[in-house]
């Protein structure tokens, strides 16, 4: 059981806006930046969002991150079939003195 | 192009050992922290260990402390993970990743991963 809680699945239709939540505590999300990773089956994860809401070069602006208190969200607008993947949130945990990942959310584009 | 290529995975018996390698290119390896992150089959991601630019600081997740050792050779642009006393629960794809250092899970980019299977 991860200390960062994500819904195991999410879905949406093309063009729709979907959000994926990530719930933590004061020792992780509440006091540190949140990161998001995208992973397609059989491939390595890719950094999607860093420092709560910043996008690395090459990541479409359809992807956005936000944080409020001890929770964070990843929003994907204008959903496309190629967005179907697993998404992981991550944050540093002060109590563990190490990085934590959420359990991951499998996004299905219907 | 920044690239990380892992090798060294394979099938090993419980209690056995394995050494993973990660060769870096396309960036100044000696100026970055580096991490290992693993993913058990069908499961999520778990950070395993990281190492400072000069190798002077190393940190591990509790479950591998005393069994795994991270190291690096900056002259060879290479990162290593020595896995000893392996258990079935260590079965996973092991990824190396460039770590931006500091208290953050900022890993970018990642290698393609190497599979470690611990089984008799």
Task: Characterise the protein shown here.
The complex is a heterodimer of chains A (110) and B (120). Chain A is mostly beta strands and 110 residues long. Chain A contains no helices and 9 strands. Chain A is globular, with a radius of gyration of 13 Å. The mean pLDDT of chain A is 96. Chain B is an all-beta fold and 120 residues long. Chain B has no helices and 11 strands. Chain B is globular. Chain B starts with a strand and ends with a strand. Chain A binds chain B through residues 2, 32-33, 35, 37, 43-47, 50-51, 56, 88, 90-92, 94, 96-104, and chain B through 35, 37, 44-47, 59, 61-62, 95, 103-113.
Mean pLDDT of chain B: 97
Largest sheet of chain B: 7 strands, mixed
Tally of DSSP helical segments of chain B: 0
Structural class of chain A: mainly beta
Per DSSP E runs of 2 or more residues, the count of β-strands of chain A stands at 9
Total count of strands of chain B: 11
**Most extensive protein-chain contact, per-chain counts:** A-B, 27 and 21 residues
Quaternary structure type: heterodimer
Global shape of chain A: globular
Helix-strand string of chain B = EEEEEEEEEEE
SSE ordering of chain A? EEEEEEEEE
Helix/strand/pairing category of chain B: mainly beta
Rg measurement of chain B, Å = 13 Å
Number of helical regions of chain A: 0
* Alpha carbon gyration radius of chain A: 13 Å
Mean pLDDT of chain A: 96
Give a topology summary.
The complex is a heterodimer of chains A (110) and B (120).
Chain A: E1 9-12, E2 18-23, E3 34-39, E4 46-49, E5 63-68, E6 71-76, E7 85-93, E8 98-101, E9 105-109
Parallel strand pairs in A: 1-9
Antiparallel strand pairs in A: 2-6, 3-4, 3-7, 5-6, 7-8, 7-9
Chain B: E1 3-7, E2 10-12, E3 18-25, E4 33-39, E5 45-51, E6 58-60, E7 68-73, E8 78-83, E9 92-99, E10 107-110, E11 114-118
Parallel strand pairs in B: 2-11
Antiparallel strand pairs in B: 1-3, 3-8, 4-5, 4-9, 5-6, 7-8, 9-10, 9-11
What's the gist of this structure?
The complex is a heterodimer of chains A (110) and B (120). Chain A has 110 residues and is an all-beta fold.
């Amino acid at each position: 059981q991860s200390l960062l809680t994500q819904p195991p699945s999410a879905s949406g239709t093309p063009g729709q806006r979907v959000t994926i939540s990530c719930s933590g505590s004061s020792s992780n999300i509440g006091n540190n930046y949140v990161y998001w990773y995208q992973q397609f089956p059989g491939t390595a994860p890719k950094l999607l969002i860093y420092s709560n809401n910043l996008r690395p070069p090459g990541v479409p602006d359809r992807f956005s991150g936000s944080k409020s208190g001890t929770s964070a969200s990843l929003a994907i607008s204008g959903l496309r079939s190629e967005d179907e993947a697993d998404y992981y949130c991550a944050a540093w945990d002060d109590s563990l003195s190490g990085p934590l990942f959420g359990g991951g959310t499998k996004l299905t584009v219907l | 192009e920044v690239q990380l290529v892992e090798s060294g995975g394979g099938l090993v018996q419980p209690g056995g050992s394995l050494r993973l390698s990660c060769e870096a290119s396309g960036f100044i390896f000696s100026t970055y922290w580096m991490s290992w992150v693993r993913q058990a089959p069908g499961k999520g991601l778990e950070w395993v260990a990281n190492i400072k630019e000069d190798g002077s600081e190393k940190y591990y997740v509790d479950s591998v402390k005393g069994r795994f050792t991270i190291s690096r050779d900056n002259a060879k642009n290479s990162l290593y993970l020595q896995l000893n006393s392996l258990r079935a629960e260590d079965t996973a794809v092991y990824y190396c990743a460039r770590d931006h250092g500091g208290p953050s899970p900022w890993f970018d980019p990642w290698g393609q991963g190497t599979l470690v299977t611990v089984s008799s």
